[in-house]
Amino acid sequence: MLKTSGATCNLACRYCYYLGKKHEEDHSCNSKIINYSLLEKAIREYILENPSNPSFVWHGGEPLLAPLEFYQNVLEIQKKYARNIYVENSIQTNGTLLNDNYCEFFAKNNWLVGISIDGPKDIHDKYRKTADGKPTFEKVMNGIGLLKKHGVQWNTMAVISDYCAKYPNRFYEFFKGISCQFIQFTPLVERNLKESSKLASLQDEGVISNYSVRPESWGNFLCDIFDKWIAKDVGEIFIQIFESTLANWLNITPGVCTMSDSCSSSLVLSHNGDIYPCDHFVFPHYKLGNLYEQNFTQLRDNRKIKNFSLMKTELLPDECKQCEFYFACKGECPRNRFCKSLSGQPYANYLCGGYKKFFKYASPYMDYLKQEFLARRPLKSVMNFRAGKYRT
Q: How far is CA 304 from its chain centroid?
């Protein structure tokens, strides 16, 4: 993942975990965008490390603060070092800066565009505003319209806040209404340092923000969305967390790191050359080094990244390891493990109760889907299974 513009963004979403990183960035770097020499070094070394399937994710801040010329340079550098190898590119944007030129480029070069949108207008505009407090929904919808116009591949990423979690039905129907087939959503869990607005890391004592989703609300939200999806939309709409849950039921590596056995091995490169092991752990304590001073091979051999990768399995209380649903969540993301277990052990997951509720509710359907998958039968039949279950 490359942070094209670091923490710089044209919006000021109230819950943004990355906006507060500006004070931690190295201000000796004058440019707000990755410069050409760093860009070339990053692409060259990454392709050399991953010659068979190089994949780049362009992120922010807001990556479209970089001009189109920046991404044209990206392609030229990739072609230079990948030669005849296919290189995959995706970009995550708030969508407000999309225009015809960007969309023509993304369509022509087969880029996947992820749009950050939290649902219908009132839900989205609750927290996703400009720096001067103006709503952003209409601009985002205009961006989605441009993506459709140019035939760009796109999906959505929604943040489930305390407010959003109250309206699962409206949330789901909105995404169906805009013909979004691929939906990702993530629970909003943020802690601030006591007596400070700065984001707390896993090592810090922190206070849960009042816009974070509560465990019970998260569980209810997942169950309600799942119920609507399993009734009518299996095979038509693809929801990442449900697909990842089924993958774990099948003992297949899921498509999201939070539900995997170990944390992703993908590194995060900021615009100033700083490297971190994860987008959610951009704190001084977790900094691996700087690409101006080291190469990717040296950074991957860093003891910090080895210790980081062990967090997923080692920082777990006994109750978690013995839980009937551990196979399904794998302890979820370490960044949310700041509670104590019932026995008083550290590193219990804040959202545990919500996930348990969802897994318990989804279990009979996941069992059925597993059976059908292994028998190589169409998974859509689960909708008939659900209808029969409700009739009886």
A: 22
> Helix 68-82 and helix 36-49: axis angle, to 10°?
40
Cα atoms in the 13 Å half-sphere on the side-chain side of 256? 23
- Judge contact between 114 and 154, C-beta under 8 A: yes
What tokens appear for 89 in the block?
């590119």
The pLDDT tens digits of the residues spanning 41-74 come to: 999 999 998 888 899 999 999 999 999 999 999 9
Q: Token pair for residue 115?
A: 């749009």
Q: Which of 212-216, 309-313, 321-325, 341-345 has the lowest mean pLDDT?
A: 309-313
Catalytic residue numbers?
279
Q: Classify residue 238 as exposed, middle or buried by CB count within 10 Å of its CB (0-12, 13-18, 19+).
A: middle
Residue ranges with strand state E in 274-346: 274-276, 289-290
Is the pLDDT confidence value at 391 over 50? Answer: no
pLDDT in the model for residue 118: 98
**What pLDDT shows up at residue 31?**
62
Q: What is the DSSP string of 120-143?
A: SHHHHHHH-BBTTS-B-HHHHHHH
Q: SS3 of 389, please?
A: helix
- 43: Cβ contacts below 8 Å, ≥ 6 apart: 56, 74, 77, 78, 81
Nearest 5°: the CA angle 257, 235, 357 is 50
Task: Report the predicted TM-score, pTM, of the whole model to 2 decimal places.
Answer: 0.93
Nearest CA among 62, 64, 225, 199 for reference residue 131: 62
CA distance 59 to 6: 8
